[in-house]
Structure formats: C-alpha cells, structure tokens
Amino acid sequence: MPRKSLFQRRPLLILGIAFLVWLLLPGIIKTFFRTSIIELQAPSRQAASVVRDVQDYWALRSAGRNTLLRELSDLSRQNSYYQLRSQRIALLEEEIKRWEQLYNLPSHPEYHFEIARVVQRDSTTWWQEMTIRKGRQHGIRKGAPVVFAGGVVGRVREVHLATATVELLSSPGLRLSARISGEARPLGFQGGENRPFHPPGGRLDFIPADYQLPEGTEPLVVTTGLGGVFPEGLVIGRLTSLEESEETLFQAGRVRLDQRLHQIREVAVMIALEESTQASERE
Amino acid sequence: MNKDYRWTVLFLCSLVGWFFWQEINHFLSPVHLSLYLGGLLITFGILRLPLYSGLIHSVLIATWLDAASPTYPFGTGILAFALLHLGIYTLRRKISHDTSAWMILTALLVNFLLFLFWTVYHYPRQIDPSGYLWRSLVDLVISQIATTIVAVWFFSLQNALLNLCHMPLDEESPLSP
C-alpha cells in the first residue's frame, strides 16, 4: 500500500491551518491580492462592453434613412431648447453668485461631470452595483456621487485604474440624507427593495407622525446635501406610501426609484472642481 | 505529491463560464433577476479530479468570485467553497460520480447549498425581508434551471479541453464527446 502524505491523511487539518494563515495575513496583502484580481477581471468586462457598443453601432447603421432623419430633427429641436435653458441657467447662476457675495453666504460647490459608459450591471439578490469604464486615470474618486437623467444613480464604491464600481441607490448598503420635496426636515433613505419584475425601491425613515401623503400625488424625494457627498436637490425617487409605526413617533415610507436605474448605459460622475484642481496640482 | 496541472485547464474553462454568467446577469438586470452558477463551476473539479488539484481549482474560483463581491470580507467565499468541496468529495465514493445524471444532480446540490449560504449570510442587512426571500426564491429557481440546461455541455467542454491539452482524466468519462 503506498504511503500517504500528510496532505492526503489530514485534509481538514490542512484546510484549518490554511484558514488560520489567511485570517492572520495582514489586511494590506489581502487588499493587494483582491485589487490585482479585479484589475485582471477588468479587461474581460471592458471587452464585453466594447463588443456591445459595436453591436449597437451596427444596429444603428442598419436603421433606415427616414428613421435617422426623424431622429436628427428631434435632436435639433431638443438642442435649441437646451441652448435656451443653458442661457437661462447661466443668468440664474450669475444672480446666485451676486446674492452670495451680497450676503456673505458660502458658495455652492461646483462640479465637473465625467461621463462614463456602463461596462457591467451586477444587480444580484445580495448586492446592486455597476462597473463603469472610467477610473483613477480619469480623475474618478472614491465616494463621488453618480447621476443620470433620472436623478441619483449611486456613489463610487471602488476605483481601479481604468474602471470604477458604483454602488447603486437600490443597494441595501446605501444610506443617504433625503427630504420630501416641499418639506425642510431631513430624513433617512436606504435602498434595498428589489423584487423581481418590479421597479427598484427603498425606504424613507424618520418621517414625522403628522406628515400625510398628498392625495393623488406621489411627492418627489430629493437629496438634502447633508453629509457632504450628494449635492442638494438631486432626485432619488417618489414616495408612494407610508407605514405607521406604533412604537415610535415617526413613520416610514416606501420610495419607488426610477425604473431606468437598472437599464442605464451611460452615467455622469460628479467630481468637485476644488478636488479636481487639487488632484491635478499634485500630479 | 504528483504534479497534476489539470486544475489550470479547468480554471481557464471556468473563467469562460464566469464570463458568460456575468454577461447573462448584465442583460437580466433590467427585470431584476440574476443567475448564480458558482456550483456549476466547481462540480467537475470536485467529482473528477483528485482531492488537492480539485481543491486548488475550487479555491481559485472562489478567490476570483470573492474579489468582485462587495458585501462580505475577502476570503469568506474561499472558506465556503473549500468546506463544500471537502464535504462533497467525501461523499463522492458513495455515489456513482462518473455518470452525467449524477454530475448534474451534484451540480444542482452544490449550487443550492452555496446559494442558501449566501442568502442566509445577507439576510440580516435586508430592509424588506419578504421581498428579499421572494427574489431569492425566483433567482434560485432560474439558477437551477440554467444549471440543468448548461451542465452537460459545460462538463463536456471541460472534458474535451482536458483531452485537447493531453491531460485526460484517470478513467474515461461518459461525458467525453
């Protein structure tokens, strides 16, 4: 009978020792190991995203001329509308600055919007996140707010060389300060309602017991600007119902998030201009 | 120990499987569904490789999956995969592990156990427990259906790649093309 080695005789013991070694391993080594694997995974994710872009391009190429002309005409109409809006916003911004100077108010932070393609959406039962095709080399910072046309998308959880991971608003781990549009009191929002075939949702906590939902309407829930991550007034979702609690003085509410949250192809990462300038100076 | 590098071929094959799994999840995301196929990736290694080459394969896959997972400490999955590997490996002598039906059943069992582990692990941080359990049940059902459909092809692919690399299994597998 061939002699068995220790590895063959005591597999559980070896596993236990390996586990102990893993536990005692310094965090920096584990982080390095993990980051290296993510950087190894990045090219395959980016390649898949580029292939999808090429597919979209050829699908557009095969569209009829009339469809393209119609799209072009719609776009030029929208373009003129947004040019007018842009002029109006510039005037309002000037006025705000004048008032700020007049009353010595702290100025609103200004942001640079870094547009990024979504490489991969990963909305499992356990977490909700997406990978974007911009990273450290594009000035993306950890914790930066991420937005799209419908409001808040989430915040940057991890930044890698050419990619970044965004924790979505529908993720149970994401909490932020919010308020109901038209109300001043700050409330707590937490994501985490992800039923199949339903729009994503979250919960609004600490709603005062005397607050009543206006009949026939679903008020907007927006960010408060407290906490320093998300600027004020970004749309989170709509408050659809209230749940009274017998134990506390507050109510909780259900918030319906934008249905497009899990279909987005492009997002904008908000980078505070001061932060961006400091980073470029350091470089 | 004998130098057995069949786990390298299986690992590369599993990475291909992982890539397609991630792509499917990307497209399922708008309807709020997702697949979990972790069990499928490691079953062949558990049933058809010697203990240590199979274990290396399972640990590598777990490390790869752990790196991209944001909600638990890096290494939790490695422990879960390794324990499950050892558990199923000790049972493999009692089952006829070289028939495709048993391999599929084992893949379903391994996938179910891993899914259950992660579902229980993440349960305490949920704000909508009933919604979470409903979503988990639907995801589990579609994951098991997907495993059943894909398993035979995936095991045959792994077998074919081993033969292609001149690293055949110890005995002829019924899944050989």
Oligomer: heterodimer
- Name the average pLDDT of chain B: 88
Structural class of chain B: mainly alpha
How much helix, percentage-wise, in residues of chain A?
A: 25-40%
Count every beta strand of chain A, where a strand is a DSSP E run of 2 or more residues. Answer: 12
Rg estimate of chain A, integer Å = 24 Å
Main sheet of chain B, how many strands, which sense, barrel?
Answer: none
> What's the domain count of chain B?
1
Which architecture of chain B per CATH? Orthogonal Bundle
What is the correct CATH architecture of the domain at 111-283 in chain A? Beta Barrel
Please explain how this structure is put together:
The complex is a heterodimer of chains A (about 280) and B (about 180). Chain A has about 280 residues and is of the alpha+beta class. Chain A has a domain at about 110-283: Thrombin, subunit H, CATH 2.40.10.350. Chain A has 5 helices and 12 strands. Chain A has helices at about 5-10, 10-25, 25-60, 65-105, 275-280, and strands at about 110-125, 130, 145-150, 150-160, 165-170, 175-180, 185-195, 200-210, 220-225, 235-245, 250-255, 265-270. In chain A, a hairpin with a 4-residue loop joins β1 and β2. The longest helix of chain A has about 40 residues, at about 65-105. Chain A is globular, with a radius of gyration of 24 Å. The termini of chain A are far apart. The model of chain A has no long low-confidence stretch (mean pLDDT about 85). Chain B is an all-alpha fold and about 180 residues long. Chain B has one domain: Arp2/3 complex 21 kDa subunit ARPC3 (Orthogonal Bundle). Chain B is built from 6 helices and no strands. In chain B, α2 crosses α4 (about 75-90), α2 crosses α5 and α5 (about 100-120) runs antiparallel to α6. Classes of the chains: A alpha+beta (about 280), B mainly alpha (about 180). At the A-B interface, α2, α3, β1, β7 and β8 of A face α1, α3, α4, α5 and α6 of B.
